[in-house]
Amino acid sequence: MSTLPPTSAGRVARIALAGNPNTGKTTLFNRLTGLSAKVGNYPGVTVESESGTLRLASAGEVELADVPGTYSLSARSAEEQLAIAAICGLPPLEPPQLVLLVVDATQLTRNLYLALQVIETGTPVVIALNMWDMLAGVGVEIDAAALARELGVPAVPISAQRGQGLDELRLALDRALAEPASARPGPRWVSESPLLRADIASAAAALPRSWRVEDPRRRDALALWALLSLDEKDEISGAPKELRDVVLARRRAAADAGRELDAEIIRGRYAWIDARAPRFLLTRAQVATSRTDKVDRVLLHPVFGFAAFLLAMGLVFQSLFSWADPAIGAIESAIGWFQELVVARLPEGLAADFVGEALIEGVGSVVVFLPQIVLLFLFIGLMEDSGYMARVAFLMDRLMKAIGLHGRAFVPMMSGFACAVPAILATRTMERQRDRMLTMLVVPLMTCSARLPVYSLLIAALFPPSELFGFVPVQGLLMVGMYLFSTLVALAVTAVLGRTLFKGSSMPLLLEMPPYRMPNLRSVAAMVWRKSRVFLTEAGTVIFACTVMMWGLLSFPRDTESEARFDARASELAQAGASDEQLAELENERTAAALRYSLGGRLGRGIEPAIEPLGFDWKIGIGLLGAFAAREVFVSTMGVVYGMGGEVDDETTGLRQRIQQEARADGAPVYTPLVGLALMVFFALACQCMSTIAVVKRETRSWRWPVFLFAYTGALAWLCAFAVYQGGLALGLG
Fold it and tell me: Quick one: CA dihedral 201, 206, 209, 211, positive or negative?
């Protein structure tokens, strides 16, 4: 796992790649590093870091470390603080030897705000003027040499999309590493206000020595960061208390004097930029309405734009829900074939069971998610690279803001209808830790495809085909109702958690609307490959371990006496010339008896008092435990419990009949429509999915949040199922 290793004697030089979002930074990173990128996490947080090898003529191999995209170095959240930590080398990171700053040439003055902040730190900088080939289309002409003179750092025109200017950029980076003075910023903004200079001096005096503040320029830059970033509503935990106290005191004093501290700093920087812009921004010609503006008239329209968005999301949803099925089926078939091949060559017994049912099926339980993960990140990559993702976030922001999130949360929540695992991974596109955590903890409430076999089995078995009002099919209405129910609960839980456990200030959604462009397929493919590899190597290992654990839970201890009796009966039947069907039925009985005797079976009986108020018996309890491996396993587990083998599915008529005929000791049916409804409600809300738990563990780097997820969804599921069942009984619906 790459964590931006410190640079010291004998280590390669490090270049930090920074820039605003949607400036083509990722495309440039992929162009410069190829497929050498390593994906990891910054120390102590869940934000991905990517680093790759860049080869230069003189410096040789250097490390190019991608910094999270940011509009400025000011930060109100711990995640946003990473940008300044990576650029300035705040502990535990080391400062880079050079910053490669990617700037959108078509939005130059706006992008120069971040450039000015980086320049203020005194770190050597090379500016890449990206999208240079698009300047004519927006009526802009830039003098790159004049810009370099004004900023005191090299400025190289490039087009990362087309691969233009990259040789010149490599030469500039090579020279800057060999001669740091050539890229060390010259002019910089300095406030002329005595009051603001006093604020900066006070904050600078409170900076900790561990932040390496010997350089006056670096010290003032960090003081300005603190004045803009620290307040009562920030989420930054790494700021020392002394610094925080000083900054809050200066902010209060400024407010009491009628001064807007933030506005003074921001206006001062933009005034510095605007005063120099005429020297390098030569002309702004009048051009016809751009293609981007024409398309945005439709895609940002409150009616047509929303319709287009629903169409795009429908395409994504269909790909995850249906188009991935052939690949998933092929993987399952391949795993099944390999399992049979291997097990057939092993002697019958524990070793064969372990290899076939634990190891091989464990690998299959990981790999089977790949088609959905690849498709999801493919669509996200295409939407990001084309510029459409920013429009999606803008469209959905008003709706999501009502429940405490912003527009970027909608795509992961929508993806949760297909599978929670790739949906949780998709939360990485969200910058703020609070928003990412909140989305991650409610995505499992969305009705994923794994719940469908459970719903199909129970609806078909317990709700006979009939019509409401003479034309509305009840079975279809129930299925739609379960989707609607889970969605409403997810939105309600989001609103509650967002106002309690994840209470925080409402942050505006800051977006750069990039021009539409053809996605760079090479960059998108590289991103999909890296995300898939991370899933297989990190989340996949936890899923595999959980699969093996579930196998052990449902397989041990073994009843040797019962096994001997079944062996004897099997021998008798074989000698009597019994049919294959009779032998298979005996084998199913053996499996059912072994399951009941196992620790999982005992736990199923042990939890019966807790689930009895919901109308569930111990057999359903075993099914719930088995479903933790994957929700759809509930169906095959119930097949084993009822002695029908594990090859059944929701279409198996015999299993439906056994469910319909199952009776209690007093002759009352175990399964009634009310019990079926309560069970579906329980499945709709409970996080019965170890893969989801494993991915949350991987994303949060802690067991605290997956345990909380399992606990709160389990409690919510129990309470809602209890209300449905007991409420139905009170109304005489039992």
Answer: negative
Q: Name which CATH class applies to 194-275.
A: mainly alpha
**CA distances, 128 to each of 16, 59, 83, 668 (Å):** 13, 19, 18, 76
Which residues of the chain are in CATH 3.40.50.300 domains?
Answer: 14-183
pLDDT digits (tens, 9 = 90+) for 652-689: 566 677 777 777 767 788 788 899 999 999 999 999 88
> What separation, in Å, do the N-terminal and C-terminal C-alpha atoms of the chain show?
55
CA contacts within 13 A on the Cβ side of 91: 11
Residue 499 clears pLDDT 90, i.e. is over it: no
Residue whose token pair is 């870091």:
49
Name all contacts of 325-330 with Cβ < 8 Å and 24+ positions apart: 327/370, 327/371, 328/368, 328/371, 328/372
Give the closest residue to 589 by CA, choosing from 648, 643, 654, 638: 643
Helix (H) / strand (E) containing 61? strand 60-66
Distance CA(219)–CA(214), nearest Å, equals 7
Q: Which of 611, 633, 635, 317 is nearest to 487 (CA)?
A: 317
Of 97-111, 254-268, 303-317, which range is least confident?
Answer: 303-317
Burial profile 394-408: b = 16 or more Cβ within 10 angstroms, e = fewer: bbbbeebbebbbbbb
Q: Are 108 and 63 in contact (CB under 8 A)?
A: no
Neighbouring-strand partners of residue 39: 50
Tell me what percent of the chain is helix, strand and coil, each rounded to the nearest 5. 65, 10, 30
Angle among Cα 321, 322, 327 to the nearest 5 degrees reads: 105
| Each residue's pLDDT tens digit, 62-110 | 999 988 888 888 876 655 677 888 888 887 788 899 999 999 998 898 8
Q: How far is CA 296 from CA 39, 58, 292, 393, 513, in A?
A: 34, 46, 6, 14, 10
Query: pLDDT per residue over 276-287, tens digit each?
Result: 999 998 765 555
Joined tokens for residue 297? 């008239």
Q: What is the rounded CA–CA span in Å between residue 44 and residue 237? A: 11
- Fold of the 14-183 domain: Rossmann fold (3.40.50)
Residue 147 has pLDDT above 90, yes or no: yes
Question: What six digits make up the tokens of 678?
Answer: 């309560």
**Count of positions (residues) in the chain:** 734
CA–CA gap between residue 534 and residue 39 (Å, rounded): 7
Q: Boundaries of CATH 1.10.287 in the chain? A: 194-275
* Cα 111 from Cα 95, distance rounded (Å): 22
Residues 6+ apart with CB under 8 A from 636: 626, 646, 647, 648, 649
* b/e sequence 631-641, b meaning 16+ C-beta within 10 Å: bbbbbbbbbbb
Residue 78 tokens read as 């711990």
- Cis bond before residue 557 (omega within 30° of 0): yes
Token pair of 398 as six digits: 């008003």
Beta partners for residue 142, in sequence order: 281
Indicate the burial class of 115 (C-beta count within 10 angstroms; 0-12, 13-18, 19 or more). buried
CA distance 446 to 628: 17
* CB-based contact 324:506 (threshold 8 Å): no
Q: Where are the alpha helices (DSSP H) in 402-520?
A: 410-415, 420-425, 433-442, 452-462, 474-499
The reported pLDDT for the residue numbered 647 is: 55
- Residues 6 or more apart from 253 whose CB is under 8 A from it? none
**Which tokens go with 79?**
């995640």
Token match 């390669």: residue?
12
C-alpha neighbours within 13 Å on the C-beta side of residue 40:
12
Residue 405 to residue 397: CA distance in whole angstroms: 8
Mean pLDDT of the chain: 82
For 688, list phi and psi in degrees, rounded to 5. -85, 60
pLDDT at 649: 53
| Cα 637 to Cα 335, 628, 631, distances in angstroms | 20, 11, 10
